[in-house]
Design a protein that fits this description.
By secondary structure, the protein is mainly alpha-helical. It has one domain (about 1-110). The protein has helices spanning about 1-30, 40-65, 65-75, 75-80, 85-110. Helix 1 packs antiparallel against helix 2, helix 2 packs antiparallel against helix 5 (about 85-110) and helix 3 (about 65-75) crosses helix 5. The chain is elongated, with a radius of gyration of 20 Å. The termini are far apart.
Length: about 120
């Protein structure tokens, strides 16, 4: 089971990277060419966030099952001296949580906002 989650987590990291690069490419292209936010843009935004959240779920599951993490927390005083154990025990999970927060906020902000039509009365 652990090997399966490790494989899926490794596979999904590339899907996350590719979807983020494609989303950023579409966003820059739309911004610099002054294009409207299309259904395709919304779909890319949605699927990028979905892939990233799936990666988060896989990562948290892997984190809870990992023998490296179990060793890290059981032997914290010794393990914190090893950068590899410190990285996977604390640094990696906090950086990835921060990344997911940025992706989620960016996705929410980039949604197309409906235009408010106002009736302007001419005098």
């Amino acid at each position: 089971m652990y090997q399966t989650f490790t494989f899926l987590h490794s596979l999904f990291r590339w899907l996350v990277v590719l979807s983020l690069v494609y989303s950023i490419f579409r966003a820059c292209k739309g911004y610099f060419l002054d294009r409207k936010f299309s259904k395709t843009d919304d779909s890319v935004r949605h699927w990028t966030a979905t892939i990233a959240h799936t990666q988060l779920i896989l990562g948290i599951t892997l984190y809870s099952q990992s023998p490296i993490i179990k060793y890290f927390w059981e032997n914290f005083n010794e393990a914190k001296e090893s950068f590899d154990l410190l990285f996977f025990g604390i640094i990696h999970i906090f950086l990835m949580l921060f990344s997911i927060i940025l992706i989620t906020v960016g996705s929410a902000v980039s949604k197309e906002k409906p235009l408010i039509k106002r009736n302007l009365k001419r005098c």
